[in-house]
Design brief:
Layout: E1 19-22, H1 25-36, E2 39-45, E3 51-57, E4 63-68, E5 78-79, E6 84-88, H2 92-105, E7 109-116, E8 122-127, E9 133-137
Parallel strand pairs: 1-4, 1-5, 6-9
Antiparallel strand pairs: 2-3, 3-4, 7-8, 8-9
């Protein structure tokens, strides 16, 4: 993966990858890419077509790893429906666009917003079709000391 478009000269490529297991990995990947704006980097499937491992990048940096949930054997990832993440979006207009795409697409749900926070962020909260919670906002976090 070319990380030059997702990191600056001072920020190394992601070394912490949030992970989740999906009941239907292909369907969740479609929602995350087509509706929320992630980019599929790689997906490895077994002989039956079940996604065992996938990486989805967030255009402005970072990403997630995921695969098909395998009951009884999957201890490597958060079970689908119990995952939560905050995703930084550099443009407030994109927050409104994400909310619109979720409402138009179906399957997912806008659970709050779009709204403005008292610390200056423009946010929207979304539940994906598998029940995972996503918070998208313009707050980049406090600068490191």
């Amino acid at each position: 993966m070319d990380t030059s478009s997702t990191t600056d000269a001072k920020t190394p490529p992601p070394q912490i990858w949030p992970t989740l297991a999906a009941r239907d990995a292909r369907a969740l990947m479609a929602f995350l890419t087509e509706v929320l704006g992630f980019v599929e980097v790689v997906a490895y499937a077994d002989d039956s077509g079940v996604v065992q491992h996938a990486e989805l990048a967030w255009p402005s940096g970072g990403g997630i790893m995921m695969g098909q949930q395998r009951p009884g054997t999957d201890v490597r990832a958060t079970a689908s429906g119990s995952f939560t993440a905050y995703v930084v979006v550099p443009d407030a207009a994109e927050i409104d666009a994400i909310a619109g795409r979720v409402r138009d697409h179906g399957g997912g749900e806008v659970t709050q917003g779009p709204y403005d926070t008292d610390y200056g962020s423009h946010d929207v909260a979304v539940r994906d079709p598998e029940g995972n919670h996503w918070q998208f906002g313009t707050y980049h976090g406090a600068p490191p000391p």
